[in-house]
Amino acid sequence: MDGPLIRLVICLAVLSLALASFLLGVTALILPHWGTFKNRVRDEHGNFGPWTVCRDMGYGRTSCGNFVSSFKPIFGVYAGGISSAIAVTALAVLSLSSALQLISQCYRSNIIFSQFTLAAIKLISGLVTALLTLVAVCLFATQQDDLEKGFIVEFSVSFYMEIILATFSSILFLLTILEYLIARKLPPGFDGFLSRKEPSQNPKTRTGLLGTTIGNPGFQDEERLRRTSNGFSGTSPTLSRTGSLKKVRIQTQSTEV
Asked: Which of 58, 103, 160, 179 is least crowded, fewest Cβ atoms below 10 Å from its Cβ?
């Protein structure tokens, strides 16, 4: 597998994992199921997240808000939600940067930023995502049982989704480091993944001669002038490959005399 194909595969892997992580992070952030609480003394139980508390009212009814229950999450839960929200935003930036890289590959030209700049943006976004998802997990884990009020707290679905997100973010960060190191080794002026073959510069080949003619528009005029100075014109008879070149030149010279 050559270098350009490796870069393309890595970029596709980063984009796929970043999109999956973004959807997972948004789901965990919206659902108030980071933890559950249950009172040992009276019938009061429900679930909560960084933004709200939901109390089970019985018969399939649920009431959500900040004052529906005597259970109050600690500030670390709210701070964990803020960290998770910033991490999801960084994931969105990382996904957009990866998409721009693929579009640049399709059109063989830079889109807004160069490949090296996009690799640097993805590296920073990956670092922010990895750190803040880990911080969010650690902050939420500080929520303990509220024994004074008789509440037992257990972790729920969204918290475990956040742990999975932290794992994905760590893998993404490692991939963005690899992308950045590869981008630094690219030759100056090279921005694509799969480069087109350069035309041959050998003047003896057809491609090279064509490139010289296009690059020098006066080539045909110079060739015509050279032929005219040697006694040829546009109305001169066509030369064949049977040795009539010498006869034509002698006839033309005698005419000039």
From this structure: 58
Which tokens in the block code for residue 115? Answer: 């490949």
- Report the percent of the chain where pLDDT is more than 90: 39
Burial per residue of 3-20, b for 16 or more beta-carbon CB atoms within 10 angstroms, e otherwise: eeeebbebbebbbebbbb
Tell me how far apart the alpha carbons of residues 209 and 64 are, in angstroms, rounded to a whole number.
Answer: 77
CB atoms within 10 A of CB 173: 20
DSSP secondary structure, 163-225, as one string = HHHHHHHHHHHHHHHHHHHHHHTSPTT---SSPPPPPP--TTSHHHHHHHHHH-TTHHHHHHH
Site of tokens 């040829």: 232
Calculate helix-pair angle for 219-229, 206-215, nearest 10 degrees.
100
Say if residues 54 and 35 touch (Cβ distance below 8 Å): no
